[in-house]
Amino acid sequence: MTLLRLNAVSRRYPIGAQVFGQKNFLTAVDAVSLEVRKGQTTGVVGESGCGKSTTGRIALGLEQADGGQVLFEGIPLPQADTKDWRAKRQRMQLVFQDTLAALDRRMTVGDLIAEPLIIHRIGKARDHAQRVLELLEAVGLSRHHQALYPHQLSGGQRQRVVLARALAPNPSLLVCDEPVSALDVSVQAQIVNLLMDLQREHGLGILFISHDLRIVRHVSDRIVVMYLGRVVEEGRADAVIDRPAHPYTRALVSALPRLPGGFEHYVPLPGEPPSPADRPQGCPFHPRCALAKDICRNSEPPLLPTEPERQVACHLVTD
Q1: Which of 71, 80, 175, 280 holds its CA 20 to 30 A away from the CA of 59?
Q2: What domains, with CATH codes, occur in the chain?
Q3: Residue by residue, what is the 3-state secondary structure of 202-223?
């Protein structure tokens, strides 16, 4: 069952002053399509500034798409800040990267976890205390943590509190925006394993956004690779990692720690991504691609299927 589907969503932001009646725009997300299925994880990976986080916010209705459509459980997502949207958002929750910014430092852990229950009017007030204890146990925290404040917790413990808050309304979809990037490697493993355990227990669909392909490979059933606001490759996680087709994906995979049977040679990725406000003509990746040809410089490749459940946007592959 498909929980979330994005159909060619786009998001542009006006930049600079209007000159001769003409506005300039920065295209953060450009015709991105993806889906998240019940009980599965779709990973979105790419360098900083590629539009990953904006795509996640569009999926939740926190950013309004300029084009395309967001479907949740087969129904178009209602307009933000409406009654229908708030009812949907109860079942679609965001797991933040910056836990100190996400948690009100004036509130105790118990009050923070109970807050979504109050906002969405779930259960009776007298039952909230028991629900808080259940959620603390579910994320691996103890009863005594409910009396503490965010600054009294470690980074890993704060991320567990953020998870408990997200789980409080019984969502069917979690959008995780770089949920472990600020944590130590050992703590990252704990949080990732906790997410996967919670997914199995509750049948959650997860949209997992990260720049770290190592973690995305571990958690994902499908992987979406983004570059400069566009999807350049999408498919089953094992196919994308074991047989990357797009030159950008090959460079990302080659940078992973060497494993038996893995890539033998590192594929260099020179330079920085171009500015989204000044996109190159043709394929957006061609200025950094050692294989680029004239067609790459003059024509932007469409995202086309190359095998069952696999799509690539590259002239060299689809031709």
Answers
A1: 280
A2: 2-91+171-318 (3.40.50.300)
A3: HCCEEEEEECCHHHHHHHCCEE
